[in-house]
Write a structure and sequence with these properties.
8-stranded mixed beta sheet, binds nickel (II) ion
């Protein structure tokens, strides 16, 4: 067993407790005040420089090594979801309607443990490590807040991780190429004069037009995107009408689209507009399609993914690493960092023998293996050593 893994195993109960404390008090996007305070006080205990994220929640720790080297950033997100927890755990959320159903409490505890371990290894560390504890991953504003406050300036590479119910607890998953999808939101507003349900010949019907549009939108992925490429177009919300005997004057369709390639993104945008406008013309209604850009796909730099995998294999053992067979069509605001600097993203396996640990992320009954904290913290340490140009054998 590597020396750093052995050390982490002695510290693990402490970081499991920190995770459970955060888990009991979940805070949603840009409200992570208690979590920010807890992280800041832990970082200060380790002798790490603490920088608040301007007026926003979130905090960054800076650890300088004993010799010159590269500057790298390690990132954890801290926000919870507006979901009611139904796990029945003794440390379940104490706030109704909020819980850590995406495992960001695990991410925060994992990066704190890595900060502790790296602070203890400062004499062997080169360069600079920044610990980015960001707010608001779930509404995609958090990464941009840290970037706007300059915390990525001068960073040579950035690394992040996310829990993954499909891998066993303690296993770290890697993938070259696209890891997670890019995501944009769309909204189609269909308009007509409105009228009486008994006299359909006197007004175009926006509900009939919406029904055609929803059906035609399904042909974007099935008939326009190449079969071996991946994309999603989902209409998730439809707002229409007030009564059974009225033809309404407006229908609003809202949806989400996911893609892995930039050219697919452009194609889907064009297709949504064409289908909205073309169907509207055919059915004599008005239509306006608006697209709200989200974050791009998470695509790491192959050499840095390999570096991260090497760190995990050397410190945890090759049997604790796995190759992810496919990308996820979920999205991650880690993509905003990757637009600025090269980096890599990996998965923290959280599956156990309990079927509730294999539910989807964001499910209020989902359970997480806390072994992810140890495996993730050790992997982050190894990555920090390799990416700053330090000698990894100091941790072995
Ligand atoms: Ni998440």
């Amino acid at each position: 067993m590597s020396a750093i893994l052995e050390r982490m195993k002695t510290l693990a109960p402490e970081y499991v407790q920190i995770r459970r404390t955060i888990h009991r008090h979940p805070e949603t996007a840009f409200e992570e005040k208690e979590t920010t305070a807890l992280v800041a006080s832990e970082l200060a205990k380790y002798g790490i420089e603490v920088h608040p994220n301007g007026d926003d929640t979130g905090v960054v720790g800076v650890l300088r090594g004993a010799a010159p080297g590269k500057t790298i950033a390690l990132r954890a997100d801290m926000d919870a979801l507006p979901v009611t927890e139904a796990t029945g755990l003794p440390f379940a959320s104490e706030i109704p309607g909020r819980c850590h159903a995406c495992g960001h409490d695990i991410h925060t505890a994992t990066l704190l443990a890595a900060a502790r371990l790296l602070s203890e290894e400062r004499a062997h560390l080169h360069g600079e490590v920044r610990f980015l504890f960001q707010p608001a991953e779930e509404n995609q504003g958090g990464a941009r807040s840290l970037i706007a406050h300059g915390f990525l300036d001068g960073v040579d590479a950035v690394f992040g991780a996310h829990t993954w119910p499909e891998l066993p607890g303690g296993v770290i998953g890697f993938r070259r190429g696209a890891m997670m999808a890019g995501s944009d939101a769309f909204r189609i507003t269909i308009t007509a004069p409105g009228g009486h349900a008994a006299h359909p010949h006197k007004t175009p019907d926006p509900i009939a037009a919406a029904a055609y549009m929803i059906t035609e939108l399904q042909t974007i992925v099935s008939r326009e995107v190449a079969p071996l490429d991946s994309a999603v177009v989902t209409v998730g919300k439809m707002t229409a009408g007030t009564a059974a005997n009225i033809i309404p004057s407006e229908v609003v369709l809202e949806g989400s689209m996911r893609y892995l390639l930039p050219e697919t993104r452009e194609k889907i945008h064009e297709s949504i507009r064409r289908i909205a406008e073309g169907t509207a013309m055919a059915l004599r209604v008005g239509a306006k399609a608006e697209i709200r850009p989200g974050c791009g796909p998470v695509i790491g730099t192959d050499a840095l993914v390999t570096m991260a995998e090497t760190a995990a294999a050397r410190l945890l053992g090759r049997e604790h690493t796995a190759e992810l067979p496919t990308a996820s069509m979920g999205s991650e605001d880690f993509a905003f960092y990757l637009e600025k600097v090269p980096g890599a993203f990996f998965r923290l396996g959280t599956g156990t023998d309990d079927p509730a640990s294999h539910l989807a992320l964001h499910n209020g009954r989902l359970l997480f293996s806390e072994d992810a904290i140890t495996a993730g913290a050790v992997t982050f340490c190894g990555i920090a050593f390799l990416a700053t140009g330090s000698d990894l054998s100091a941790l072995e």
